[in-house]
Amino acid sequence: MEKIEKNSPGSQILKGYLMATLFYEPSTRTRLSFESAMKRLGGEVLASENAREFSSAAKGETLEDTIRTVEGYVDIIVMRHFESGAAKRTVATAKIPVINAGDGPGQHPTQALLDVYTIKREMGKLDGITVGLVGDLANGRTVRSQAYLLAKYNEVKIYFVAPMS
Q1: What is the rounded CA–CA span in Å between residue 46 and residue 33?
Q2: CB 83 within 8 A of CB 106
Q3: 132-164: b or e for each residue (b if 16 or more CB lie within 10 Å)?
Q4: SS3 of residue 67 by DSSP
Q5: Lowest mean pLDDT among 11-15, 30-34, 106-110
Q6: Residues 6 or more apart from 102 whose CB is under 8 A from it?
Q7: Which residues are catalytic?
Q8: Which of 13, 35, 108, 124 could form a disulfide linkage to 141, CB 3.0–4.6 angstroms apart?
Q9: Calpha distance 43→9 (Å, rounded)
C-alpha cells in the first residue's frame, strides 16, 4: 500500500470497488484510515459513522440482518463493534470479505498489523526483538492483538507495563 500510494498518484487499483465502514462505536482515526486508503486507491466508501444509534440496529435489527443487507451494496465491510465476538458473527454471516477494525474490549487486529509493520520497517526484523507494551492493559484491545501477533515470531520478549489498579 505504501509503495502504491507514494509511487502512483491517483492509483485506480480499487476502481469499481465499494467498501462499507460500519462503526458501532466512535473511532475517528481507524475509520478515516480505512476510508482514505480506499479512496486513494480509487475505490468508493459508504460510511456509517455511528451505526449503533443511526442504523436499523437502533430499532432492534440484529447484526446478522444488517450484514446481510449491507453486503448487497458493497464488496467489503470494515466493522468496529462494541461487543466481543461481533466480528466473528459478522464473518459467519457475510459472503464478502470483512475486516475487523475493533471488536469490543477483545481485539484490534488492524492496529496490531500496522504496529508490527512499523516495527519491521524501522527495525528491519521481527524475530528476536524486545517490546514494551504500556498503558491500560486490562482494557486495551490493541495490546491483546499486538501480543498475540508478536508471539508468532521467534524469540520475541514482551514486557507489559501498566499503572497499579
Answers
A1: 14
A2: no
A3: ebeeeeeebbbbbbbbebbeeeeebeeeeeeee
A4: helix
A5: 106-110
A6: 25, 27, 30, 80, 81, 108, 110, 111, 141
A7: 29-30, 59, 80, 108
A8: 108
A9: 14
Tell me 64's DSSP state. H
Return the ∠ at Cα 74 (arms to 73 and 80), rounded to 5°: 110
Neighbours of 73 (CB within 10 A): 10
pTM reported for the whole predicted model = 0.81
* Residue from 160, 23, 12 nearest 100 by CA: 23
Per residue in 31-58, pLDDT tens? 999 999 999 899 999 988 776 666 676 6
Which residue carries 526483538 as its cell? 129
Whether the CA torsion 146, 152, 154, 160 is positive or negative: it is positive
Q: Identity (one letter) of the amino acid at 33? A: S
d(CA 95, CA 71): 7
pLDDT in tens, 117-147: 999 999 999 999 999 999 888 877 888 889 9
